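Human: We require from you a protein record containing the residue sequence and its fold in token form, and nothing else.

Assistant:
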Amino acid sequence: MNNRNLYRILLILLFCIGKTNAQEILTIEEAMKIALENNFEIKIAKNNSKISETNVTIGNAGMLPTANASITDNNSITNSSQTRQDGTTTALDNAKNNSLNYGVSLGWTVFDGMKMFARLDQLKELQKLGDAELKKTILLKIAQVNSAYYDLVQQQQQLAALDTTIVISNQRLELAKNRFTIGKASKLEVLNAQVDLNSDQVALLRQKESYINSKILLNQYLARDPKIDFKVTDQLTVDDKLIFADLLNLAQKQNPALEAQIINKRIAELELKQVKADRYPVINLTTGYNFAESQSSLGFTSEASSRGLNYGFNATLNIFDGFNQHRNEKVAKLQIENSQIAIEQQNMVLNTQLSTAFQTYLTNIELIGLEDDNEEIAKQNLSITLDKFRIGTITTLEFRTAQLNYVNAKVRNSNAQYQAKLSEIALKELAGNISF
């Protein structure tokens, strides 16, 4: 390769470096922080959790009294006549009559078989269920952000591999042209070198397209403008120290899906307590202060008014309701049984998912070591092949094979690391242990 071509490559590399430095470097920690603040589904889940929290009040459970104010005003204009027992008659046209009633009343259920206390506990459990759903949503979205982020990391590595092969293809083309010029190679060798260079450039363009689309997808997860440009870090580090027993122990304690099933069982148990409370009497205290006033243009009384306090209590007891009480209790008990079955099923599903994901994780960790070795071997092979090609001791086909083997080895190594990272993310999501 002559000095002019070397100078040209250096200029291109400097331009690329300058352009890269101008881009925002987005770390995985920053990406997760943005997602937690901006992601639409996380925002909705947060609001749903706040709704559940807002509903936890003693008033919503029915423990507080209720007060009402009322006013009624009735007016009429009538043509009236009255005939008394002594035969006398009184008549009046357009007789005006009106009555006005207003007052306040207070009611308070002081005993309902402890249903109100069970209801308050149920509201608290519903709040916990909302928190579990929020955690589930956050874990899912953070896992998506992690997957999309490290997909970009591996794609950047693949772009670097393709950039390398294009540099090598350019060297090959220059060598072929020089050899053709001095008569040591045919025109066919130059054409083959040009075709392979074009193929590499096409592959690079396709990879750039995939890279840009993956950036847009990550921006979507971060709920920001899809046109925002950025660059991710170059390193992809996999945690290869995960232990299945530790993951299973964490999952049984903090997996949000399992946690939700446990809470659902508790809610079903509290529902049974509320149903059983209907066997007991309900006692209500009532009081109020009322004012009444009436005026009549015809009759024995032209005006009347009253005001005063009233108070009392009432009690009701369900004696027979067509066996509905027995039916409702039976249904509530079956709901508890279903909740316990759902817990056992979720435990089995979780165990299965962890087992399969962990086996995939172990395989991918092993593949990383193999692909590292393959890449190093392919690199050495390419270096030797390139030296032999320069002195003309091997064919262009052998050189191209070594070149493609090196590129494919780098791509496979990058993909192996990415797949191992996906396995790590999946395991930590199941264990409810993704850091964010």
Q: What stands out?
A: The two ends are 50 Å apart (CA to CA). The longest strand covers residues 89-111. Confidence is low (pLDDT under 50) at residues 1-21. The domain at 3-38+114-279+322-430 is CATH 1.20.1600.10 (Outer membrane efflux proteins (OEP)).
